[in-house]
Amino acid sequence: MSDNPRLLVVDDEAVICQACRRVFARQGFQVDESTDAREGLARATEMDYAAILLDVKMPEMDGIQFLEELRKKKPDIPVMIMTGYPSIPNAAAAVRLGASDYVTKPFTPEQITQSVRRMLARYADGQNGPETASVGVEAPVPRAEDFCFLDESWLQLEIDGSASVGAVLTRWREKTAQAVRLPQVGEAVYQGLPLAGVTFTDGSLVIVPSPISGVVVAVNEVLTKEPSVLLSDPCGKGWIACICTTRLEEEIDHCKPRRVVLVNADEASAADQAEQLGLLGCQVHVAKSWQNLEPAVQDPGYHLLVLDASSVGADGPGLVRRAKAAAPSLKIVVVASDASQWEAAYREQGIFYYAVEPFADREIVEIVDAAFRPQAPPRRPAERRKDLSEPVHGIRIINRNGHKVQLLAAPGLLRRNGGLGWEIRQKLAEQAFPIVTIPGDADVTSAAVLAAAGAYDRVMVLLANDAGRLPGSLVRDTKAEYVSASRENAGRVTTLVVQPNPVGGEILGFDERTIASLAEHIVQEMASY
């Protein structure tokens, strides 16, 4: 594939062409569009494309006819079929004519990215090797000015819109990492939902959430042999994966840099502490006195001040006092030695943390995480406590595009005023969607899905099944049994599978952060179709 691969999208719906352009242009592709099949065929035969994305149903010339003509001149070019439902005759004809794969409409950015990259990887390998390469790539060079964090997870953007991702975990001092479960190359991951899992020698499993949504294009195989690197060098050799981002514009604002002011009058000590903070993904401004400290504390981009008490001596409490007066919201950490004579003076200032030699014992990892980790918002009270456990079978809305959407859930997944069901309903209410809640705990049957597909523009089936992923993972499946059962309305049906947590009594049993992220992505699906 060339450095600037070119794609051709042929679909009589301009909105599909535009959607594909948005997805692939930010991935470094040049994207040509055609809403006229004959004009698109002329382009396809005259120009060199890495791949063609082709609709099946088009006026004047359908996708099968397009393929027949294309193969006369371009027998080897990869072609991805886009269809509302792949009928058996069309599927057989497309395969005979060398179509590489198909994707069903409506598709998400992750789904179309997965399909196209899988297809290109196959062709790049001569169709003789695995569909996707899973070799590790060289560890990225840390560039602290580029790190952005979503809680403990970080991302580092590249020019082509891809991102190196990893995490700075805080409980490593007391535990030893035994294994790291990496995502699979080609796997779709979603912001706030599982990216990787770390198993410690005591048997505990820590889930690392993805800081951004996208498709995994490379993983750090070093971690399978040396899991401790994830803890010892989290923003360098311990990176986890490289992701082709798919929702960057919508999600990047949720990720924030960690900007730190370091006050240290000793040049050698300051250099060492700044390096350690930089290896944790922090952007560090070093100040030796109030003269170069004042501009930094007045910059709202800095949220943490780390002051080395030994280096500034008796001036330290006064510097803290002036910094708090200039920036009351600034969190201040005092780095002290044993039996400091100024401890009482510092604590009187209402500082965030007073730590004894945190750089020596690496407690600084936990301190930085605590300083930047946002406080969880207070939970909204349930509407009626007596209805807390009332089961919910489905939720209906009319979304922002005027489409009627129905979510059908398997038994035990949704409750009116608790867990995932409550979170979904709250997020829909915040966007002012009129909500109809269907009580009950009925099984989701093919007949029910078929009936819903005939009455609604979009049907989403929510299941909790073992998909072989980390607990809390979300898998979007447009080729599942409920889709096949709907036949002509299959393009309206999507199955969302959540990997359940085997620990605990509930079917899902996740923490509030995972529940909120699951709800966010489910609501996004309901609202945007």
Could you characterize the architecture of this molecule?
The structure is a single chain. The longest helix has 17 residues, at 512-528. Strand 1, helix 1 (14-25) and strand 2 (30-34) form a beta-alpha-beta unit. The strands form five sheets. A six-stranded antiparallel β-sheet has the order 6-7-8-14-13-10. It has a six-stranded mixed β-sheet with strand order 22-20-21-23-25-24, with helices on both faces. It has 529 residues and is of the alpha/beta class. Helix content is 31%, strand content 25%. The protein folds into four domains: 6-124, Response regulator (Rossmann fold, 3-Layer(aba) Sandwich); 144-254, OB fold (Dihydrolipoamide Acetyltransferase, E2P), CATH 2.40.50.100; 258-372, Rossmann fold (3-Layer(aba) Sandwich), CATH 3.40.50.2300; 385-528, Rossmann fold, CATH 3.40.50. It is built from 18 helices and 25 strands. The two termini are 32 Å apart.
Summarize this structure as a short list of keywords or feature phrases.
529 residues; single chain; 18 helices; 4 domains; 6-stranded antiparallel beta sheet; Rossmann fold; OB fold (Dihydrolipoamide Acetyltransferase, E2P); alpha/beta; 6-stranded mixed beta sheet
